[in-house]
Every structure is written in C-alpha cells, then in structure tokens.
Amino acid sequence: KEHIAEVEQFTADTKEKVEEFRIKYLGRKGLIKDFFTEFKNVPADQKKDFGQVVNTLQNLVKNKIEEAKSSLETSTEQSGLYGDLTRPGNPIEIGARHPISIVKNQIIDIFSRIGFNVSEGPEIEDDWHNFTALNLPEYHPARDMQDTFFVQTNPDILLRTHTSSVQVRYMENNKPPIRTISPGRVYRNEAISARSHCFFHQVEGLYIDKDVSFADLKQTLQYFTTEMFGKSKIRLRPSYFPFTEPSAEVDVYWGLETETDYKMTKGTGWLEIMGCGMVDPQVLENCGIDSKEYSGFAFGMGIDRIALLLHQIPDIRLLSENDIRFLEQFKSAL
Ligand code: PHE
Known about the structure:
- The protein is of the alpha+beta class and 334 residues long.
- 38% of the residues lie in helices and 20% in strands.
- The strands form two sheets. It has a seven-stranded mixed beta sheet with strand order 1-5-6-10-9-8-7, sandwiched between helices. Strands 2-4-3 form a three-stranded antiparallel beta sheet.
- The chain is rod-shaped and about 125 Å long.
- Residues 162, 164, 204, 241, 244, 247, 275-277, 298-300 line the site of phenylalanine.
C-alpha cells in the first residue's frame, strides 16, 4: 500500500526517468514480479486482499507510465523539438534592386505608356547587325566613334557597341508600324574612369510608321524627359550618326544645385542625355522596309549616366563593383 502512494506521486521530466520507473515496478526483476513470487507465502485468508492491492498497483503503474509519456511528447512540441512557438520569427532579408534596373524599369514604364514594347537581342553580334546594316560599311571612318571589342575577325563577331543592333533585328523580323525600345548592356573599348566604363547600359528606341516626322520625335522626347526628370526644358543640337539623318544630340536643362550637378553638366546647366534622329532611308531598306512608304525616328540613351545623375552617384564603377554597402542604399528606391 505504501507503494501505491509512491506511484501516485510519480512525475517525470525525461524519458530516462520514465524508463527507470518502469523497470523498478514492471521489469523482470521489478517489484510487481517480487509481489507475485511472494504470493505463495501469503496466508490463505489474506490472499484475496493481497492480490487486489498488487493488481491495483500494477494498473496504476501502467497508467502513470502512459501519462508521463504523453505529457513529455506535448512538452517537446512546445519547447523542445520545434522550439518555443511563441518566439519571434527569423527576419526575412529583403534585397534591393540594382540602380541600373531601377532606372531601366522607369524608362520602360514611361515608354510603355505610349505604346512602345520591349525588344532584346544578343550581346555578341555579327558585323551586319552592329555596323553594316546601320550605314557603317567596312572602312567607314565613323566606326572609330565606337571602339569595339572583337571576339573574332573575318567574319567579324564582336561585343555589340550599341543596342541599335537590336533595332536592326526587330525591323528585319517585324512589319511597321513599329514602336519598340531595346534595353541592354553594350561594350566599348574605352579607358575605365569615374565617368566611363568598358561596358554600360543603353535604352534605344525606334518608331516606324507612315508620315512620322521630326516633330513627332521632339514631342516624344519632351514627354520622356518630363516624365523621367520632372524637368521639361530640352534642347536639340545638330549632330551626326551614320544611321540617322538629320541627327541631333538631346540636352536637358539641369539646375545647378549640387556639386554633382555642376560636374555632370560641366557647369553649363545643360546635360547631354541622348542621341536621336530620323532613321536614314537606306537603313530602312537594309532591313527590308520600304522607305518610300515608311519613315521613322530613333533615339538612344545611356542608363548608367542617368542613374548616376538621379541618385547622385559620384563614380560609374560603383555600379559594377557589387559592394553590398552601396547596393543596400537602394532598398527603398523602388
Ligand atoms: N546608337 C547611338 C549610340 O550608341 C545612339 C543613337 C541611337 C543615336 C539612335 C541616334 C539614333 O551612340
């Protein structure tokens, strides 16, 4: 009977203690076994009583073991195996978009609102798509305008120097009306400095339809610069590109508020942001478009320079160094 009292008080906080308890009572050399062995020595008139007590003890022990096991399981769920379920979760690290992507997406967004789609092409190009189709035949001096990285010569395979190559591919494969912008990485064999790199990013645009005029080009650029910079004053300076005629350089007026503004605009307030012009009829013909029926305009701008400007980044090399301390700063940008 004193064992019954002991068993009733039993609790265990580990599996080992439950097992110890089981062996003590139910094991091959356990107490219950002893009591049954003892049974034959008990006087006949007490046999019934003794038997009942031992049975009660055995059942109690079995119940206690079950109880202890299941309470141990519940507490592992709450604090052991799965930890404390009420503790705060692990923070989720959210990355930042790269400033080039932020600006590229802004440009795509602005042009998509006026019906331009996005086209892409290979970074490793042949001579035709990067040069010849664009009125830059072999030995044309204007090829020197863009120092080229060659992958192979004769036939020439190269790293594209502009995404005008994508426009050639697009014209070859699509019928007018065409409204497309071509974002992508381009390569030029230039000395690397704070202001220029041997690779950078462009968005070039192409619009081909019947009766497209220079006024359409100018209005499109005015729309773009207003949306992009919130500044509406632009000027077009006559320029030269082999694939457009007439050609122009687009400057946007940028107030001289910071030292970076001053440097970017060389102190004049006017900042050159892109080249543009009416697509040369010969280029249309090269790409299988009838230049008597169709005309169009094209423009091209560098994403990197715009990113430097908008985010006050002092050195273009920061854009390709992948320094986490730099990139982290763009978490809230978009
Ligand atoms: N392809 C020219 C460049 O990379 C930019 C440009 C595009 C100029 C379209 C005029 C028209 O410099």
